[in-house]
Amino acid sequence: MSTDFVEYRFSHLLRKPLRSSGTLEYRADGVLVRNVSAPTRETTEVDGEQVRITRAGKSTRTLSLQRAPQLRVLLGSFRALLEGKLTPLKQDFDVSLTEAAAHWTLTLKPRDPTLAKHLAHIDVHGNGDKPSCLEALEPDGDGALTLFTAAAASAVLPSRAELERTCRAGGVQGATTSR
After folding, report:
1. At 68, is the secondary structure helix, strand, or coil?
2. What is the largest CA-CA distance in the chain?
3. Cβ(49)–Cβ(66) under 8 Å?
4. CATH for 2-168, among 3.40.50.150, 2.60.120.380, 2.40.50.140, 2.50.20.10?
5. pLDDT score recorded for residue 149
6. Contact, 62 vs 52, CB < 8 A?
């Protein structure tokens, strides 16, 4: 399974969001691969307890998820989402689902207080049987918004409010819904 993505990272330390795009792939062997094609080339592979990061022109770095328990929880939850498994999600998150017609939002709030210091919640928005967007919000308001769509060529970055409306509307540019 593979999908295009465009990710926007927001930080109170930055004047404008950081934008990256590429593909996400979840292989049959359980390996999760994030290929970033812009603004620079980077490949991240999560294989069991190992994460390998390869950047253009640099040697590959490997880290163990044994040393990063919060990252292990996040990656495990992403795998559970991709596999449609609710039980592993409920072990680490309070899970709620809201639906309106074909549109839905799955909200994950971390149970672990250490993780909750860094992650307020994750909202996965979708239509029908397809996720269209993932919002990860930190307690201080920083966060990332990932649209599961091909990157549009544009020199102008959309505002955070525009991206949130697009995300919550199911990834359709220009559509809005209330939450």
Report:
1. coil
2. 48
3. yes
4. 2.50.20.10
5. 86
6. yes
What pLDDT is stored for residue 84 in this prediction? 79
Task: Please tell me the distance from the alpha carbon of residue 29 to that of residue 48, in angstroms, as a whole number.
Answer: 10
Its pTM stands at 0.85
Which residue shows structure tokens 């525009």?
A: 162
pLDDT category, 178, cuts 50, 70, 90? very low
pLDDT in tens, 127-168: 888 889 999 999 999 999 999 987 776 667 888 999 999 888
Instruction: Kindly report whether the peptide bond that precedes residue 39 is cis, defined as omega within 30 degrees of 0.
Output: yes
CA 145 to chain centre: 7
How many CA atoms, within 13 angstroms, populate the side-chain half-sphere of residue 82?
Answer: 18
